[in-house]
Each structure stands twice: as structure tokens, then as C-alpha cells.
Amino acid sequence: MAPPGESKDGFVAKAAGVAVVSGIAWSILKSFTTSATPSPPPIDTSAHKQTYHVSQGDTLFSISQRFGVPIDDLKAANRVHGDDIFAGDQLVIPK
């Protein structure tokens, strides 16, 4: 509930970190003072590295066994954080 003398919109805007000007809310972006997290560089899939296109039914375990690569190395080379891969994905096979 808004305090006495303050509109509901003004109270909500203040709580959300925005300013209300002539009925239009303008975001006060505090992100200008913080540094953004840089995105990781793209995975290098150049010709000197082997790649594999994931097929229906493939798992990280089956791919690691096929190529003789530890699952953790396969996940690290492809920035996979869980166990999910999908048909159509392209994986880099580390050497």
C-alpha cells in the first residue's frame, strides 16, 4: 500500500527503481556503473579440430566412448554444464 500523499504508481515505480515523469516510467539504469560480464569467446570449430553432429539417441557418455574422450573433457570443450545435448548440436571432440 502506498504511503499517504503518494500515488500508487509513484510508490510502485520507486520500489522498482524507476522514475515517473509525466505518467511515463523511465528506467534508472544502474548498470552503467557496473561492468557487464563479457561473453565467452566462440568455440573454435576450425578444420584442425574434429567435430561431431549429435544424432537422436546420442548421449555424452556414448559420444565419449565412441571417441575415447573423458566426458568432463567433452563437456569442457563444448561449454556444456549439465548433461543435456540435443540432436543437431555440433560438438568439438577434444584431442
UniProtKB/TrEMBL annotation:
Pfam families the record matches: LysM
CDD domains attached to this UniProt entry: LysM
Lineage: Eukaryota, Viridiplantae, Streptophyta, Embryophyta, Tracheophyta
Residue ranges occupied by any LysM domain in the UniProt entry: 50-93
Protein name (Swiss-Prot/TrEMBL): LysM domain-containing protein
InterPro entries xref list: LysM (IPR018392), LysM_dom_sf (IPR036779)
